[in-house]
Amino acid sequence: MKRPVGPGGATPPPRAPQSAAATPRPVQASKIAKPAKAPQPAKAPKPPKLTRAERKAQKASHRAAALASQRTRVTPAAPARVDAVGSRVQGIRRPASEPGKPVTPVLTEERKEPRRPARRLTKAQQEAAEAKRKLKEAVKARKAFERDEVRRFTAHLRRRKIIWGSVAGSLAAIMIFVSVGVFTPVLALQTIAVEGATRVPADQIMAALQPQINKPLPLVDMGAVRKAVEAQPLVKSYSTVALPPHTLLIKIVERSPIGYLSVNGNLIMVDPAGVVLEQSTEKTPGIPILTVEGGSAQSKGFVAAVDVINSLPGALAGQLEEVIANTTDDVTLVLTGGARVFWGGPENAAMKNRVLTQLLAVNPVGSVSEYDVSSPKTAVVR
């Protein structure tokens, strides 16, 4: 077979035969050798777990290191130039012969970086923060509610404690006061005062109570006080008042005389109870003479005379000169000037007083000698 001839009659060069050694064969993947694995470095041991105090100390050290890095740094200033003829340093000319003086380094403070804006939270983070805040408020409200409930259910216990504390405090105060008054001279008796004594000799009462001086007021013998006062017949009643710190006041009510009883030519002043107040030979103006059966305060006429005198108004009782009461139903009043009033018995005293007052107004003493009001509805003037 002939080879084709190329243009121009040239014969193309023959192809070189392919040899098996020259053409590489594809190698199967399974037979490719795997590269050897590099030895892995040994794992570093985990650092030991720090306690809470150690973590705090570590944070403090890091914070101190950060602050130390931000401290002021020393920046040396540029040295001043020195010329042969002279030099100028900050506008001052210095001769060339004067050596250059060292310049004091200037301390410059490093500027702090501006504070970075806070990182914006995502919607989920915001919801989580809001839920956490609401949970915290709910826990706080729950604790407050529980405290209120505990106080409400234990209110009676607190009231009981307050009451018992008040009672105990009062008892303690009373015991202290009594102890101070009894066992100390703070409340010792030093002054005895008698009030309301006109005819009663007050000095005799105070002299009888001298042994009670320097005794504490709560320990004064009230029996001795009673004996000293009752020894005076003119005393109708009395009362004692302790005036801390050192005074005992005795208030006396004297007996009021009702009239004189004539006994053996002597005038004996008596009170409405028949107690003898004094004995004299002269009559005191304004106090009538009581003429009764036997001249004794135990007679029935004395009781009737006393009732009639006590029923008279003050102006009329002051005009009495004598009261004659032989019986309980036959009482006669003798007024100043000699006029007589036939009073009768002590009954209907109010009506008799009104009628007698009118009769005296119409017929004054001196114009008539007798007024008969024993029967007030039919009064008679003579």
Describe the structure in your own words.
This is Cell division protein FtsQ. One of its GO terms (cellular component) is plasma membrane. InterPro entries: Cell_div_FtsQ/DivIB_C, FtsQ_DivIB, POTRA, POTRA_FtsQ_type. It is a single chain. The protein has eight helices and 16 strands. With 382 residues, the chain is an alpha/beta fold. Among the domains are: 130-183; 185-254, Roll (Ubiquitin-like (UB roll)), CATH 3.10.20; 259-381, Cell division protein FtsQ/DivIB (Rossmann fold). The strands form four sheets. The chain has a nine-stranded mixed beta sheet, covered by helices on one side. Strands 5-7-6 form a three-stranded mixed beta sheet, with helices on one face. Helix 4 runs antiparallel to helix 5. The radius of gyration is 67 Å and the shape is elongated. 13% of the residues are buried.
Distance between the termini: 215 Å
Tell me about the largest β-sheet: 9 strands, mixed
Helix/strand-derived category reads: alpha/beta
Report the top-level CATH class of the domain at 259-381. Answer: Alpha Beta
Report the radius of gyration as a whole number of Å.
67 Å
Kindly report the CATH topology of the domain at 259-381.
Answer: Rossmann fold
By DSSP, the count of extended strands is 16
Oligomeric state as shown: single chain
Give the second-level CATH assignment, the architecture of the domain at 259-381: 3-Layer(aba) Sandwich
As a percent range, the share of helical residues equals 25-40%
CATH superfamily of the domain at 259-381: Cell division protein FtsQ/DivIB
SSE order in H/E notation? HEEEEHHEHHEEEEEEHHEEEHEE
Strand content: 15-25%
Shape estimate: elongated
What do the pLDDT scores average to?
79
